[in-house]
Automatic annotation (TrEMBL):
<dbReference type="InterPro" id="IPR014757">
    <property type="entry name" value="Tscrpt_reg_IclR_C"/>
</dbReference>
<dbReference type="InterPro" id="IPR036390">
    <property type="entry name" value="WH_DNA-bd_sf"/>
</dbReference>
<keyword id="KW-0238">DNA-binding</keyword>
<dbReference type="Pfam" id="PF09339">
    <property type="entry name" value="HTH_IclR"/>
</dbReference>
<feature type="domain" description="IclR-ED">
    <location>
        <begin position="68"/>
        <end position="213"/>
    </location>
</feature>
<feature type="domain" description="HTH iclR-type">
    <location>
        <begin position="6"/>
        <end position="67"/>
    </location>
</feature>
<dbReference type="InterPro" id="IPR050707">
    <property type="entry name" value="HTH_MetabolicPath_Reg"/>
</dbReference>
<dbReference type="InterPro" id="IPR011991">
    <property type="entry name" value="ArsR-like_HTH"/>
</dbReference>
<keyword id="KW-0804">Transcription</keyword>
<dbReference type="InterPro" id="IPR005471">
    <property type="entry name" value="Tscrpt_reg_IclR_N"/>
</dbReference>
<dbReference type="Pfam" id="PF01614">
    <property type="entry name" value="IclR_C"/>
</dbReference>
<protein>
    <submittedName>
        <fullName>Helix-turn-helix domain-containing protein</fullName>
    </submittedName>
</protein>
<dbReference type="InterPro" id="IPR036388">
    <property type="entry name" value="WH-like_DNA-bd_sf"/>
</dbReference>
<dbReference type="InterPro" id="IPR029016">
    <property type="entry name" value="GAF-like_dom_sf"/>
</dbReference>
<keyword id="KW-0805">Transcription regulation</keyword>
Amino acid sequence: MTAETSQTLDRGLRVLKLLADTDHGLTVTELSHRLGVNRTVVYRLLATLEQHALVRRDLGGRARVGLGVLRLGRQVHPLVREAAMPALRSLAEDIGATAHLTLVDGAEALAVAVVEPSWTDYHVAYRAGFRHPLERGAAGKAILSARQQRAGDPGYTLTHGELEAGACGAAAPLLGVTGVEGSVGVVMLAEVVPERVGTRVMDAAREVAEALR
């Protein structure tokens, strides 16, 4: 540190960098140890960063990078969507269902990119900007499953009628993308999700994750 720099700002930026380097977040104690400061300082840093949506804390108290980091650069969301679009378009056309990329925003799942199939007679209407609780719907539950299973591949999640009557969902989490929690999925009008859909969704999630690295 020099006379021209701010110690508090430096610590806040170090918090963001530490959180960006982990997929599972850090506790106040872990951040305290890594920064070499007491827990009170960490609490204040996190509270300030949370006010600006740069950090969020999950129900278990672990701090993670917030979507406010993405909002700092107006082009980030368009770039995320652009990176995901080829895989989403291929998924929608292959399955014949609406495909989406969903990211975590606090306690909610936020659809940031949506592609509808071009050849079907009907499909579920789903729009970018749609939000729902993480505990409901395949997209959010896939993200939660990745949090709970910290080693290995959590596979995919299936739901039926949780967000819209008669609609099924299948989603797989994004894995290995530092600082980003999300999932790729499809939503369709069906009584039963065909077996191949789950595998296809997992493949698409891997493609999107690779594009975002």
